[in-house]
Design goal:
Length: about 350
Amino acid sequence: MSDGLEDVVAAHTVMSDVDGAAGRLIIRGRSLDDLAGRATFEEVTRLLWDGFFDHLPADLAGPLAAARAEVFAEVSAMDTGILALSPIEAMRALTARLSDGDDLATALRLLAAPAVFTAAVVRGQAGEAPIAPDTSLGHAADILRMLGKAPNQAESEALDTYLVTVSDHGLNASTFAARVVASTRAGLGSAVLAGISALKGPLHGGAPGPIIDMLDGIGGAENARPWIEAALARGDRLMGFGHRVYRVRDPRADALKGAIRRMGTRAGRLEFAEAVERAVLEILKAHKPDRSLDTNVEFYTALLLEALAFPPSAFTCVFAMGRTAGWIAHAREQLAGGRLIRPQSVYVGPTPRAAA
Ligand code: ACO
């Protein structure tokens, strides 16, 4: 048995390759450097879904915008009970109301869902009315607009870069969960809901919110070392550091840092975060000398989404907006060739007593 299924191969995939030793990510034959900041989220979704849907349009921007408008009709189901949940729970509850299926129309609605529902939930929790999608805009720009912002081009491009950067990443926990559900032929909606549920945990996509708490708790670069040392002495994990596969720096960290720099705002906050990052890496090296713990995607995710004025409680929802493209691609790939996923367990409980 492999603890945490480490090093177990559970799928052959054409979607993405995570090279943990070299710190490289390939998405459908293209390097992350070639896609982040250069291709739109709609183009990368098209790349991921290519060959896995019949009659996939050459350009997904229009169909995805139309799906946003369709999904917005479901925002009316948002009652006070849903608004009392955390944003990720509220977004999941609203997504669960969409019909299941395996076709392209279902896939597009599921891709639009986290964007439309998160914007409506964030506004609803602030006592504001939802804003309907603008189907003339690209997905990233419209997400910011549905949140009530008037985004400039640099902000829209930064969010687009983020969505592309997190669109797919090998057989991570949420993608594996989505593939397990897809293998039962339950439908894409069920697979996406499994993905959202796995993503929510703090060891996976729930890490970036607490990173803002860490930065706020540290307050100034001079407090970084004592704060970090005290956290480790308590046995806490430092969010945004360490990875199951990467033994070097996660390449997505620098893709996102570049996007923050291109926005040209909050230079002081970035400088402070870089000082905290340096201190964490130095201390972790001494704390765990036998384990290579480096910066993962979540550290600069937190800074980027903070700069775009998303509330930290909704950061995981924004991750889901990007990763849903990958979950759907993997679910379709699983359906196309994979068997039911059903591993074995070793029973270590008591045996029944023999009858007297
Ligand atoms: N801070 C402090 N110690 C850490 C950290 C960390 N961030 N990460 C790992 N360690 C320590 C563990 O405590 C463990 O120590 P032990 O052997 O004394 O118990 C050792 O390093 C190995 O940890 P594992 O949990 O076995 O490593 P694994 O590969 O399973 O964990 C994980 C990967 C879950 C990401 C881990 O590094 C972690 O918890 N990081 C913080 C949370 C985080 O940033 N998650 C986002 C990951 S990226 C993503 O999912 C999108």
